Amino acid sequence: MISILLWIGRVAGIAGALVCAVAGVMRVSGSFWLGGFQLGTLLTAGIAVMVAGCVCLLLVLVNRGTDRR
Questions:
Q1: How distant is the alpha carbon of residue 18 from its chain centre?
Q2: Is residue 24 part of a domain?
Q3: HSE-up of 4 (CA within 13 Å, CB side)?
Q4: What is the pTM of this model?
Q5: Which pLDDT score, from 0 to 100, does residue 32 have?
Q6: Direct distance between the N- and C-terminal alpha carbons of the chain, in angstroms, rounded to an integer
Q7: Helix ranges, the chain (H)
């Protein structure tokens, strides 16, 4: 379970960072829309995915701390 959460956290963090980077680059280039979505919505979705990844990694850290006792 710990290894699954670890991989979910890593993948979610990378995916969220990529979505945020794409939204940022597109917005700086002057676009407001990408694939039918507003770039602000994509940025918010990227942030949400990164937060979910952080929660998964936090659960891994908490569980590793309790395994040692």
A1: 8
A2: yes
A3: 1
A4: 0.88
A5: 96
A6: 19
A7: 2-28, 39-67
Q: How many residues does the chain have?
A: 69
Question: What CA–CA distance (Å, rounded) separates 46 from 48?
Answer: 5
Look at residue 49 and tell me if it is in a domain.
yes
> How many structural domains compose the chain?
1
- 69 belongs to a structural domain: no
Angle between helices 39-67 and 2-28 (to 10 degrees): 160
> Does 33 reside within a domain?
yes
Range of the domain at 27: 2-64
At 65 the pLDDT is 74
Q: Which residues of the chain fall short of a pLDDT of 70? A: 67-69
Would you state the pLDDT for residue 64? 84
